[in-house]
């Protein structure tokens, strides 16, 4: 097993079992399995959307504040912690609420917080928000201290959020103000003050005190400074800092020593559960696991769990499966011409920190004895573990199997895909020929499918050393690498706009130079010669970053030469910030994209195959074997 590390990872082609199969099937004519024309078989489906709402009997946080909430300090901290937990969840989804205020925070029958009114919440963050306060009559009124009644003050709203709660970076007189999730943190500070301070009876008094609080000096009422409120004042100064980079994130606030822990009963219950789970031989452990499996599924959950899966009896689905089987047979034929043999791997894999690092969004299940297992997120990590543990020194294998991706929304069937994989395990160095061969296999498959031959394809290349060189040059700490990988991956998948990318990079507190470099490189993809020119500020230097960059570019050039030697005619570009499955790969990474036309868009690109080397992943499994 010593020489096992010289390997090449697979290409992967995904056939997605999704509702989009109807559209794809309608475009299939004259395939080799029987000249099927399904365009006349399309059946229009009508769907209805239902919105389930929750009635919050105890009204809003505004009601609680006006009712003397400040007198119950324990309740103040409990509600505040719940608000921060909810805000942390919102921000983890890449969203900004932008209109956080007491009237938008609801209390249910159990006195628990529900953050609502997302009318201004956004995941499409603008790069700039033009907000000229000189023409904003509402804010001018506040600045001049105009007297309002309580109800009038409560209804004051600006273009983003209520004027009394809006972050100062949104009230700048500059032409444009760049902002991120920290605007919600500032609003949270104003809310905490109102929760801790006595109820204000007149609108004029409230405006005066809150304007002092909103000043750069953060001026507190004199009676608040004299009271035993040092903890509250410290947190308020932290949240209300006019420099957004100095404010905490919601997650940092939750883990801060200044925020009191959860209520004693909750803490005790959590600790009791942790102790129970730590001893899987105890009666308490077996009872807890047994109770988990004794839970009943409600009729609503039963109906909605797999409602998003395509109908198995639909005629278009049957047609699509016939087409899929035809494609599958041609793909297997090509794999076998290249020496591929079918090798399946176990369906269930024990959950481990190592495995989850390679497949972070894998679906996790629990067995009857409480063990946590995973079902395949992709065909790569499971295969790598299998060949190391079974001492397979060399193999060319293929597999076409189902894989599953966990969804952020709980209570639904995991996303189900078909993935096609071809792997080459070879203990002998080959001067990067196998990467080119794998891309050539995709070339052959495309040439066997008439419906794809007229499309435009592009080969995108990167190298893990090149990516590391860029991050090292930017001075990014290694503990932030995963966060940056996640941002780049989501951006490539179309989940983030350019402005969301900028916002997330700002939240990582990178230097201006690092953010500018990463932001400019994000959409950079060109010839290797052009990339040499773009990265010359890195390659001309001395040190590890320059060495990594030169190594990555050299191997990319070799792979490009091998691709051209094999006669592949697709254009090739280098993408320095390509991060496809970056935690699995070590060396060359590549994607093959296809130009497609969408209904609502003029055109776009779809990744049809991707792969790279995963020597280090094999090595990591070897250490535990």
SSE blueprint:
Blueprint: E1 7-16, H1 21-26, H2 61-66, H3 73-92, E2 105-107, E3 113-115, H4 137-143, H5 150-154, H6 182-196, H7 203-214, H8 222-226, H9 230-239, H10 250-254, H11 264-278, H12 283-293, H13 299-304, H14 315-337, E4 341-342, E5 349-350, H15 353-358, E6 363-366, E7 372-375, H16 380-389, E8 395-405, E9 415-425, H17 433-447, H18 450-453, E10 457-463, H19 464-473, H20 481-492, H21 498-507, H22 512-522, H23 528-534, H24 536-539, H25 544-565, E11 572-574, E12 588-596, E13 604-612, H26 615-623
Parallel strand pairs: 4-8, 10-11
Antiparallel strand pairs: 1-9, 2-3, 5-7, 6-7, 8-9, 10-12, 12-13
Helix pairs in contact: 3-6, 6-9, 16-26, 17-25, 19-25, 20-21
- For the termini, the CA-CA separation is 11 Å
Helix count equals 26
Total beta-strand segments: 13
CATH class of the largest domain: Alpha Beta
- Proportion of beta-strand residues: 5-15%
User: What general form does the structure show?
Assistant: globular
CATH fold-level name of the largest domain: BirA Bifunctional Protein, domain 2
- Helical fraction: 40-55%
Number of domains: 4
Low-confidence stretches: 1-8, 12-42, 121-161
CATH architecture of the largest domain: 2-Layer Sandwich
Question: What is the CATH superfamily label of the largest domain?
Answer: Bira Bifunctional Protein, Domain 2
Widest sheet, order of strands: 1-9-8-4
> What is the rounded Rg?
29 Å
Mean pLDDT: 79
Profile the largest sheet.
Answer: 4 strands, mixed
Pairing-aware structural class of the strands and helices?
alpha+beta
């Amino acid at each position: 097993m010593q020489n096992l590390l010289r390997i090449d990872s697979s290409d992967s082609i995904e056939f997605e079992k999704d509702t989009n199969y109807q559209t794809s099937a309608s475009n299939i004519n004259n395939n080799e399995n029987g000249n099927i024309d399904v365009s006349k078989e399309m059946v229009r489906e009508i769907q209805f959307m239902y919105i389930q709402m929750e009635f919050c009997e105890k009204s809003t946080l505004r009601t609680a504040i006006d009712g003397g909430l400040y007198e119950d300090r324990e309740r103040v901290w409990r509600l505040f912690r719940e608000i921060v937990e909810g805000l942390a969840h919102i921000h983890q989804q890449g969203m900004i609420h932008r209109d956080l205020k007491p009237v938008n925070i609801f209390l249910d029958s159990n006195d628990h917080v529900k953050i609502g009114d997302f009318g201004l919440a956004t995941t499409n963050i603008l790069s700039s928000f033009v907000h000229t306060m000189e023409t904003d009559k509402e804010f001018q009124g506040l600045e001049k201290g105009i007297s309002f009644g309580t109800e009038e003050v409560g209804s004051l709203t600006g273009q983003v959020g209520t004027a009394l709660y809006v972050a100062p970076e949104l009230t700048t007189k500059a032409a444009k103000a760049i902002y991120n999730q920290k605007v919600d943190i500032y609003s949270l500070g104003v809310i905490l003050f109102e929760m801790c301070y006595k109820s204000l009876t007149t609108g004029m008094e409230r405006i005066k005190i809150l304007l002092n609080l909103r000043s750069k000096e953060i001026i507190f009422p004199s009676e608040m400074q004299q009271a035993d409120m040092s903890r509250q004042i410290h947190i308020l100064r932290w949240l209300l800092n006019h420099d957004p980079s100095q404010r905490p994130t919601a997650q940092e606030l939750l883990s801060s020593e200044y925020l009191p822990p959860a209520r004693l009963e909750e803490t005790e219950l959590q600790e009791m559960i942790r102790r129970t789970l730590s001893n899987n031989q105890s009666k308490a452990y077996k009872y807890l696991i047994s109770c988990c499996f004794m839970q009943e599924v409600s009729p609503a959950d039963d109906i909605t769990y797999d409602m998003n899966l395509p109908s198995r009896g639909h005629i278009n689905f049957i047609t699509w499966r016939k087409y899929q089987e035809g494609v599958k047979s041609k793909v297997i034929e090509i794999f076998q011409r290249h020496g591929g043999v079918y090798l399946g791997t176990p369906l269930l894999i024990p959950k481990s920190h190592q495995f989850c690092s390679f497949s972070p969004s894998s679906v996790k299940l629990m067995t009857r004895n409480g063990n946590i297992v995973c079902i395949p997120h992709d065909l790569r990590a499971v295969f790598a573990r299998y060949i190391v543990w079974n001492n397979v020194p060399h193999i060319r294998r293929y597999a076409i199997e189902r894989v599953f991706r966990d969804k952020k929304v709980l209570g639904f069937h995991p996303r189900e895909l078909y993935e096609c994989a071809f792997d080459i395990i070879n203990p002998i160095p080959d001067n990067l020929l196998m990467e080119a061969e794998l891309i050539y296999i995709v070339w052959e498959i495309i040439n066997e499918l008439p419906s794809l031959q007229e499309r435009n394809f592009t080969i995108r290349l990167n190298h893990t050393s090149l990516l590391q060189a860029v991050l090292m040059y930017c001075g990014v700490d290694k503990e932030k690498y995963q966060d940056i990988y996640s941002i780049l991956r989501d951006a490539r998948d179309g989940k983030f706009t350019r402005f969301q990318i900028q916002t997330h990079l700002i939240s990582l507190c990178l230097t201006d130079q690092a953010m500018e470099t990463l932001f400019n490189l994000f959409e950079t993809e060109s010839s290797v010669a052009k990339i040499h020119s773009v990265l010359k500020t890195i390659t001309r230097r001395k040190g590890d970053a320059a060495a990594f960059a030169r190594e990555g570019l050299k191997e990319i050039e070799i792979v490009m030469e091998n691709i051209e030697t094999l006669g592949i005619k697709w254009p090739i570009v280098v993408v320095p910030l390509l991060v496809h499955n970056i935690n699995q790969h070590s060396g060359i990474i590549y994607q093959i994209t296809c130009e497609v036309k969408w209904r609502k868009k003029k055109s776009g690109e779809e990744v049809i195959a991707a792969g790279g080397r995963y020597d280090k992943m094999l090595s990591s499994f070897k250490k535990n074997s």
